[in-house]
Write a structure and sequence with these properties.
33 helices
Length: 786
């Protein structure tokens, strides 16, 4: 009899490639041969993952195969599902492609499927199977009560089970005799799950002694006691209650996606999405700039404190949920991490400085890819977990393994909706319930709602419709060209006004934005950003090492109009007073060229906590630290600066800090499409075929490397030749050193060269291997094609 492994072995290479493309987890690592592939495909974990990818109709066809008497052909399946035969044929083709059904004329379920679907179509086991655990005495009592007389002759368990199955084949009279209350209990189990909980389920019950509805059902065999607390509804009884139907309603086609709102013009959608994308980039830059100077601490339990999240929301002028999203996206993109394990802080990473060097479209692309791949659900911030503990942003409690797949599935539905269709949340949930029925539930629904909200906030959608560059992102293409056309060019001009404000008519170039953030405070954001100059903001720039002339020259260069006199006077006034006092450490001291100023300080009662005493007409000494002395004098309305021992000015503004990600931190750096590519799958199919040959005929089929010493070549030439072989699909001869330094010859068909490794099909070992590039001694090209 043909086995499942034999059926796989008889498949063509294209069919095997389709199987491995649909179930790429079967390649980790590549099985030794097709028998091993069949065994791995039948494991519970592998079958469960494959079932999770089936739509509602295809899953129903598979469940019907488990329920209907074998062999169940397409016509029987179509009749059971009330569907057209061609629709059933399409579902069977999908099941064969996934390796969940096999055989041609009479399809059968693959090994492991029945164990992964214990209650197909919501039905329990047949009566003969579910009553098999009953002792012969109990079966005899049941048959006696139902027949009205004891079984004649010797009645073994087999005969009793057969008779009981026959009696339950048409249970209409038994159900009616049990009474309406018992019928109501059966109706609760009729459409599944067929299992209920009952106290003392195995108590002996006869028709004459049954008093409660459950006892009347147990006495008639309409419920079966699995153990002391569990009862099961036999399949024959459930089908009678359903009127012979396997499913209530299983549409062969997914629900339609009617537009939930009036469609907008495409340019309006794209511009709205691009505006949100640019805004998200600006907000993350603003947040990380601030955290580089004033990093928030890491909670002892991990994560970001609620007060720090609220402070970030206030800084960015956004709701707290959006602040949590921006923080999580920065973390997912590798721009933010924690410094150290104990008493750490949340700091930008060195990758943030590289990110700043890219244009806005490039920055957004990194953020969007990080969000799309992240297994963290930003919407959980502020919720409570199962133990009623607060879930903080950036904590481990934010991780949800289903987040990336749910996010991707929701966006794929939006992408497939077509131009001009605005998919509402209810319609999206209905479509996903049909596409992935095993992933339903309140948790999935919440993730879908968050996905729609976050996609709009990050600029993937505009007015509920997926933007073209969002489609490019999902397809694995480069979204930057489509996005860049709709982003405003960074400007290097501002409009300085007489009311001590400056208006930036668009996103500023990075250097101007940083300098302006030092010298002015952001007053409002939107299409244009309004900055306000104050004495404190000008002093902040001077504290950072700028001079009054530097600030004036910066504004003069970048102002579209002449600087108004009030601003010039403000800068000159603060600059004239700034640095007039100099603070050192004796613990600390105050020095000035104007003795009268020191007289005023000593006469001020607010100076008492500073513990000042005069050393000279122009010098005061203090017993407090220099930083405290600076703060105290500034609180008195003065503008001192810190002085170095040599008399120079010390820049007291803290430098921006950075933190390297710890080795355990997961920063996603994947290709746009990280799914197993066609070249790897083709190499795996060759390895599986070769493994089959080896198991049948021994290892002599493996190709022998050419005689002689292994090839040698320079390191750069080795990499270039390997990349060339990947591009043309060639076969090469390489020398390879093992961990003991022993050289060997290999014939390899390179598939991929990246990350310091060569991945390819090793013809001398008949397997797919990864070779460390630094262990390859050289490469020599072979004339024959693979």
């Amino acid at each position: 009899m043909e086995t499942y492994a034999d059926w796989l072995r008889a498949r063509g290479d294209d069919e095997l490639r389709a199987l491995l493309s649909a179930r790429p987890e079967l390649l980790a690592p590549v099985p030794a041969d097709l028998t091993a592939l069949a065994a791995r495909a039948a494991t519970p974990a592998a079958v469960s993952r494959a079932l999770d990818r089936l739509d509602r109709f295809t899953l129903a066809v598979l469940e019907a195969l488990l329920v209907l008497p074998a062999p169940a052909g397409p016509d029987a399946l179509a009749a059971a599902l009330d569907a057209a035969p061609e629709q059933v044929e399409g579902a069977l083709a999908t099941l064969r492609r996934f390796g969940l059904a096999w055989g041609n004329d009479a399809p059968a379920t693959a090994p492991g499927v029945r164990q992964s679907l214990p209650h197909p179509a919501g039905l329990g086991p047949p009566a003969r199977e579910v009553f098999a655990g009953y002792p012969a005495e109990r079966l005899t009592d049941l048959v006696t009560d139902l027949d009205g007389e004891a079984p004649r002759g010797f009645a073994d368990s087999g005969r009793l089970l057969a008779r009981l199955t026959e009696l339950l084949g048409d249970p209409a009279a038994l159900v009616e005799d049990a009474g309406p209350e018992a019928r109501a209990a059966l109706d609760q189990l009729a459409w599944g799950p067929p299992v209920g909980r009952v106290a003392d389920a195995r108590r002996p019950v006869r028709l004459a002694t049954a008093t409660t509805p459950i006892e009347r059902l147990l006495a008639r065999g309409l419920l079966v006691a699995e153990d002391d607390r569990t009862v099961t509804l036999p399949r024959e009884v459930a089908l009678h209650l359903r009127g012979g139907r396997l499913f209530r309603d299983v549409p062969a086609e997914p629900p339609t996606l009617a537009s939930a709102a009036a469609p907008r013009r495409e340019d309006v959608v794209v511009r709205a999405a691009a505006g949100e994308a640019a805004g998200a980039v600006r907000l993350i830059e603003e947040l990380l700039e601030r955290w580089g100077l004033e990093p928030p601490p890491v909670l002892r339990s991990g994560g970001l404190a609620v007060r720090d999240l609220r402070a970030a929301a206030t800084l960015l002028d956004v709701p707290e949920w959006k602040a949590a999203l921006l923080v999580e996206v920065a973390y997912a993109a590798g721009l933010l991490t924690r410094s150290g394990d104990l008493d750490g802080e949340w700091l930008p990473t060195p990758a943030y400085d590289l990110w700043l060097m890219r244009d806005t479209a490039g920055r957004w692309t990194e953020l969007a890819r990080g969000w799309l791949k992240s297994d963290r659900a930003a919407g959980l911030a502020g919720d409570r977990d199962d133990r009623d503990r607060l879930i903080n942003a950036l904590s481990e409690a934010m991780v949800r393994s289903s987040a990336p797949s749910t996010r991707r599935a929701a966006l794929d539905v939006l992408a497939g909706a077509g131009r001009g269709v605005v998919v509402g949340e209810d319609a999206l949930l209905a479509r996903l319930a049909w596409l992935r029925p095993r992933h339903g539930g309140p948790a999935r629904d919440r993730l879908v709602g968050w996905t729609l909200r976050e996609a709009a906030a990050l600029g993937l959608t505009g007015f509920g419709e997926l933007a073209p560059f969002g489609r490019d992102l999902l397809a694995g293409d480069d979204p930057e060209p489509a996005l860049e056309k709709y982003l405003p060019e960074p400007v290097d001009e501002i409009l300085v006004q007489a009311d001590l404000t400056a208006v930036a008519p668009g996103p500023l170039v990075t250097e101007l934005a940083r300098e302006l953030a030092l010298a002015a405070d952001v007053e409002s954001t939107g299409g244009a950003t309004v900055y306000r100059f104050t004495p404190e903001s000008i002093r902040r720039a001077l504290d950072a090492g700028r001079t009054a002339a530097d600030v004036t020259d910066l504004l003069t260069r970048h102002s579209a109009t002449p600087l108004p006199q009030p601003l010039v006077y403000l800068i000159d006034d603060v600059g004239r007073r700034h640095g007039h006092l100099r603070v050192g450490a004796l613990s600390s001291y105050v020095r000035t060229d104007a003795p009268a100023t020191l007289d005023e300080i000593l006469a001020d009662r607010r100076a008492a906590p500073l513990r000042l005493h005069r050393l000279a007409p122009t010098v005061l000494a203090s017993g407090v630290q220099r930083a405290d002395l600076l703060d105290g004098l500034r609180a008195m309305g003065l503008a001192p600066v810190a002085e170095a021992p040599g008399g120079g000015v010390i820049v007291t503004r803290p430098d921006a800090q950075r933190a390297d990600p710890p080795p355990t931190a997961e920063i996603v750096r994947l290709r746009p499409d990280d799914r197993t590519d066609a070249s790897m799958i083709s190499a795996a199919v060759r390895a599986l075929r070769a493994g089959d040959e080896a198991s049948l005929h021994g290892a002599e089929h493996a190709r022998q490397a050419p005689s002689g010493d292994p090839p040698r070549s320079p390191a750069m030439a080795t990499v270039e030749r390997l990349r060339g072989a990947v591009e043309r699909g060639g076969r090469v001869w390489i020398g390879y050193l093992d961990q003991q330094g022993q050289a060997s010859s290999r014939i390899v068909e390179p598939v991929r060269v990246e990350g310091g490794f060569l991945t390819g099909y090793d013809a001398t070992r008949a397997a797919v291997h990864r070779f460390a590039l630094h262990r390859i001694t050289g490469v020599s090209e072979l004339d024959d094609a693979p």
